[in-house]
């Protein structure tokens, strides 16, 4: 009875989602035709291809972590149990945190690359004979390495404000720490009359060396990350192998006392192992 109830609920939810997406798309299409003034409005049901398109758009807006819930629904229907559905729902926030952390890392890397490009462009503009303020304006427009604080830095450079202070504020962005070196080079060049281009060259070389070191460390840790992913999917491969042999592992794990015990203990060890492996990899990457 529990298995039939869970399967019926999952099917009803999936059908309701498809229906809502189809009606939404159909209403938007009717509105576009009416506003366009064509005079003829389609009244038939939407095509399945359009509904699938809406599903893809919804998946892109919600994020890949919702695949955990989808997998839980599938396993729940196959195993006639609500346990996989609950596990999939619990995995959604965890996977969301992983996805957001990855996005932050990518943003940090892009910002660091933009700062390096800014230093190189600024050094080229200074060598071309332009004044530091004008050179910074041109370099900032070309590279975009100042991020959200670009307007403040540009205003300081254009109207003779505190450019090192504005650069120090901009350096608070993740990945923009190299702007502190640019602020120091600017302060030394303005206060002591030192060559700004020479200091920028040394700063650019140091930032590039640091980026190359991070890239090399990331490449060296790729094998450890792949091993972690492989260990994480081994239980799923075991379930598939057991199903192919006719052992019905889902029924044993979800509907028997010893199976539930093994599932609980195995899940705890799996989670602890993944947490420990991720901690080791992150610790090595932070060195």
From TrEMBL:
It comes from Streptomyces yokosukanensis. The lineage of its organism: Bacteria, Bacillati, Actinomycetota, Actinomycetes, Kitasatosporales. It comes from the Bacteria. The keyword Transmembrane applies. Keywords: Cell membrane, Membrane, Transmembrane, Transmembrane helix. GO terms for cellular component: plasma membrane. Residues 120-240 form the Type II secretion system protein GspF domain. The chain crosses the membrane at residues 66-95, 228-246, 258-278. Coiled coil: none annotated. The keyword Membrane applies. It is found in: Cell membrane. InterPro entries: T2SS_GspF_dom (IPR018076). It is a multi-pass membrane protein. This is Type II secretion system protein GspF domain-containing protein. Its main location: membrane.
């Amino acid at each position: 009875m529990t298995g039939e109830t869970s399967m019926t609920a999952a099917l009803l939810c999936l059908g309701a989602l498809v229906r809502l997406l189809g009606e939404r798309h159909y209403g938007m299409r009717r509105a576009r035709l009416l506003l366009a003034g064509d005079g003829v409005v389609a009244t038939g049901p939407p095509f399945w291809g359009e509904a699938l398109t809406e599903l893809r758009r919804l998946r892109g807006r919600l994020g890949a972590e919702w695949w955990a819930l989808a997998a839980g629904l599938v396993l729940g229907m196959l195993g006639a149990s609500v346990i996989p559905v609950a596990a999939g729902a619990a995995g959604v926030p965890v996977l969301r945190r992983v996805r957001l952390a990855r996005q932050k890392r990518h943003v940090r890397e892009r910002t660091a690359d933009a700062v390096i490009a800014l230093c190189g462009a600024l050094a080229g503009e200074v060598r071309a004979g332009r004044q530091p303020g004008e050179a910074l304006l041109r370099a900032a427009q070309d590279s975009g390495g100042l991020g959200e604080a670009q307007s403040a830095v540009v205003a300081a450079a254009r109207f003779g404000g505190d450019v090192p202070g504005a650069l120090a504020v901009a350096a608070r962005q993740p990945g923009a720490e190299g702007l502190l070196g640019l602020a120091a080079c600017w302060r030394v060049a303005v206060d002591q009359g030192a060559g700004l281009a020479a200091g920028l060259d040394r700063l650019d070389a140091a930032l590039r060396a640091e980026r190359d070191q991070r890239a090399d460390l990331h490449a060296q840790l790729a094998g450890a990350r792949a091993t972690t992913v492989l260990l994480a999917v081994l239980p799923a491969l075991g379930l598939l192998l057991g199903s192919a042999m006719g052992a019905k592992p889902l029924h044993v794990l979800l509907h028997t006392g010893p199976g539930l015990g093994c599932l609980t203990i195995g899940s705890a060890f799996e989670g602890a192992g993944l947490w420990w492996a991720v901690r080791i990899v992150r610790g090595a990457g932070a060195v």
